């Protein structure tokens, strides 16, 4: 069964929140967040999740489809790491540490994923890499093949 009522996500793809914890936690900066959130997330072939980061740890889970390539970058002089989630790799989930740039693309067919964030996700904790930013310039110099995984150029 495929989830219904998915809506467009700013990073690309579509999503629907399916869980928001009733419990809250306090972050180091004193803000309160739900303890955990979880979404369904879908990408079609040739579609990408553009580079973004969140201020909490995030776990990607593969549910349906051949799999994804998940690109992780810590904004150093080292090129992004590629983690493949797929049955062939026998890897179905991966933890992205808080503050890590991340992007994804399906291996081939449409994929259905789950993303759990703790402390829970809020869009105020979400940063999409700007096309004309220093981070984007550095990323493209290290991995030019990932230029299409950066937010759209602002006009």
TrEMBL record:
Domain (DUF985) ranges: 4-129
Top-level division of the source organism's lineage: Bacteria
Matching InterPro entries: Cupin_DUF985 (IPR009327), RmlC-like_jellyroll (IPR014710), RmlC_Cupin_sf (IPR011051), YML079W-like (IPR039935)
SUPFAM superfamilies per record: RmlC-like cupins
Signal peptide: none
Pfam families: Cupin_5
Record-annotated membrane-spanning stretches: none
Gene3D superfamilies: Jelly Rolls
PANTHER family listed in its UniProt record: DUF985 DOMAIN-CONTAINING PROTEIN (PTHR33387:SF3), RMLC-LIKE JELLY ROLL FOLD PROTEIN (PTHR33387)
Identification of the protein by name: Cupin domain-containing protein
């Amino acid at each position: 069964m495929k989830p219904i009522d998915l809506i467009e996500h700013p990073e690309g793809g579509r999503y629907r929140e399916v869980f928001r914890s009733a419990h809250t936690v306090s972050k180091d900066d004193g803000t309160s967040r739900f303890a955990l959130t979880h979404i369904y997330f879908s990408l079609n072939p040739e579609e990408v999740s553009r580079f973004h980061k969140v201020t909490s740890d995030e776990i990607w889970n593969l549910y349906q489809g051949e799999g994804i390539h998940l690109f992780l970058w810590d904004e150093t002089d080292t090129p992004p790491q590629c983690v493949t989630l797929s049955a062939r790799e026998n890897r179905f989930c991966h933890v992205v540490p808080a503050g890590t740039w991340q992007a994804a693309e399906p291996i081939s067919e449409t994929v259905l994923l789950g993303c759990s964030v703790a402390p829970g996700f809020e869009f105020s904790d979400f940063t999409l890499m700007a096309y004309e930013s220093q981070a984007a310039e550095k990323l493209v110099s290290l991995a030019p093949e990932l230029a299409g995984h950066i937010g759209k150029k602002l006009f």
